[in-house]
Amino acid sequence: MNMQAEMAQRLAVLNCQIFEFVDESHLHIGHTGNQGGGHYALLLVSEAFEGTSRIARQRQVQDLLADLFASKRIHALSIKAQTPAEYFA
């Protein structure tokens, strides 16, 4: 399974209205400290983020992907997590 599909499957519990995945690994070739794993960016829009802080949202997503970080399949992840009201404002 490719990384986009794997992340989408793991994050399905958030019932995202919008799930955008960008593989930015090609921008970080030769990046110091990268010992494997890709660089990715996510845009997630979900009602699951209602009433939670930006940091809590980041942790929620990171927790769902924790083993991908631990296994070094993800080196870096940019997360933009918004509620529908924030995104469509």
From TrEMBL:
GO BP field: iron-sulfur cluster assembly
Any Pfam family: BolA
Similarity field: Belongs to the BolA/IbaG family.
Protein name as annotated: BolA protein
Annotated source species: Alysiella filiformis DSM 16848
Lineage per the UniProt record: Bacteria, Pseudomonadati, Pseudomonadota, Betaproteobacteria, Neisseriales
